Amino acid sequence: MINAHNYGFSTHNDPEANAAALNAAVKNGGEITVVQPGIYEISETVFLPDHTHLHFAEGVVLKRTESKSGKNGNQFINRGALTGIKNTDIRLTGLHLLTNGVQSTAAETGCEKTVTGLRGHLAFFYIEDLYLSDITITDLSRKDYAIQICNFKNAVLERCHLEGLKDGIHFGPGSDFVVRDCRFRTMDDAIAINCSDYSVSNPNMGDIENGLIENCIDLKGAPTESFFLRILVGGWTQWKSGMTVYHSDAVVHNGKLYRVVMSPDNEAYISTTPPTHEKGFAEIDGIRWVRTHYGYEPDKLPLTASCRNITLRNIALQQPRRNQMLIYASYDEYLRSYHAGFPMPEVKNIIFENVQVHCATKHLAYVKTKTDSITLKNCHLNGCDIFQEQNEQMEAYPPAEIIIEN
Question: How far apart are the C-alpha atoms of 162 and 171, rounded to whole Å?
């Protein structure tokens, strides 16, 4: 067992010294603890390698401060996230984090500390066997999510308390996850299952499957237009000379996937020269492209970003929201999720079990994409409904089957 205090992690240190000390303590993985109660200021990212089990005792609080470099990273990140090298067996427990208004600096502005679209204070990218528990973050600002997990397998999150202006838990592509015994009060999405997303909101796109969200409460707060659960699907197209692209469009060229990172203003750009760079950004024909999906062989690139096998069980919805759940493919100035003529993404096997609506709500779920079935078991909807609308950007598809039990 490693005590981080033995590496100089202290309530008396300046933020830079604390960041260096905690990075030194976790450098080789193992069991690491912080036991002395108090507020620890910290300025730089902590990189977690394989087989790291980091535990913060009761009364320990980490307080973010701005980096002296003027460019902030994520607060915690797995070591392979910046290179696309998978990490495994990371456990982070007991963390109480004050974000203190600090937010990550966008990679597209020249920050080498961050990945485009990876905006979690706790960020995990290319990760297997992740366990997070007893995480408290209650001062989220308007940009960064509390927890973000992308390109994952086997992620368990338990007993988290997340509040503020941005997403609580934000998933990108991956499989096999559990969110259990968590509390939320967020003005943006409590939980996002975003197979596709804006180019600055998810580092990769792809399928998300096999998830369980249970025993969670969306705490009462001010009314908001965001959602307790957002499911966003999508796809991409092949690059061709003379094509028109917009912000967040995704194209494949020579077995590599690239996305447009411009401004969400509906401005059209004509692409006559293909992106070919291996990493990072390149500006071509006045279009800024970012390379995504590192480590994928050309024949392993996903064709669509679809969602399947998601169960919500024992959920109490107290936060007034017009739509509690959103299941859709976006087509607006932020993201064109679907391109005609290419495989259509689909949502399959969504189950709501003992979902209790305790607040003013118009729609339990607003559905605007191809969806095979939505099952409700033992739910109390408090007068709200499920509203389906055809996505006009897609070929016609049948309405989702609604199955109601008890």
Answer: 15
Mean pLDDT, rounded, for 294-300: 78
User: Which two structure tokens, joined as six digits, stand for 112?
Assistant: 């080498």
What's the first-to-final CA gap in the chain, in angstroms? 51
Q: In what order do the strands lie in the sheet with 38-42?
A: 38-42, 60-64, 97-98
Distance CA 400, CA 346 (A): 11
Residue 317 structure tokens: 């919805």
pLDDT band at 161 (very low <50, low <70, confident <90, very high): very high
Q: How high is the mean pLDDT of the chain?
A: 95
Measure Cα distances from 36 to 3, 91, 98, 317 in Å: 10, 20, 17, 37
CB atoms within 10 A of CB 267: 10
CB atoms within 10 A of CB 93: 17
Residues 6+ apart with CB under 8 A from 273: 241, 284, 285
CB atoms within 10 A of CB 303: 13
Q: Whole-angstrom Cα distance, residue 396 to residue 406?
A: 31
**pTM value surpassing 0.85:** yes
- pLDDT tens digits along 117-154: 999 999 999 999 999 999 999 999 999 999 999 999 99
DSSP 267-293: --EEE-S----SSSEEEETTEEEEEE-
- Cβ-count burial of 231 within 10 angstroms (0-12 exposed, 13-18 middle, 19+ buried)? buried
Q: Are 61 and 32 in contact (CB under 8 A)?
A: no
Per-residue pLDDT at 213 exceeds 80:
yes
